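# step 3/5: fold
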Amino acid sequence: MSTFQGVPRVPPRGSRTLRPRGEAAPPQRFSAAQGTVDEVAVKQKEAGVLVRKNDLNGALTLFDECLVEVEETLDGLPKDDLHYMTLAQARNDLTTKIAKLKEFTPYEYYLKPVK
């Protein structure tokens, strides 16, 4: 075994604590912001499916829900957080998607029924 100044490069056998085979890995910790990012991604995929099925109103409501979730998460998040830029980009993407989707919806969707 080669050494550098008398210190072996590889620690001796048994000095490292290894997880026994078959034992589950410890759960990964993630922030609430990461959970929001994951939820919003799932909802955006659902909204995309609705757009392909020509259900523009349903897609708009899902995109609006996503936007509200992202903005609520961004309100309490400091700018130096790891997920701040991801959420800010998601907010910008959602606003552009909503604007583009509103261009394709007929004006009948915006008319309120007369009572």
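# step 4/5: annotate
Residues 12 and 24 are 25 Å apart (CA to CA).
# step 5/5: archive (pending)
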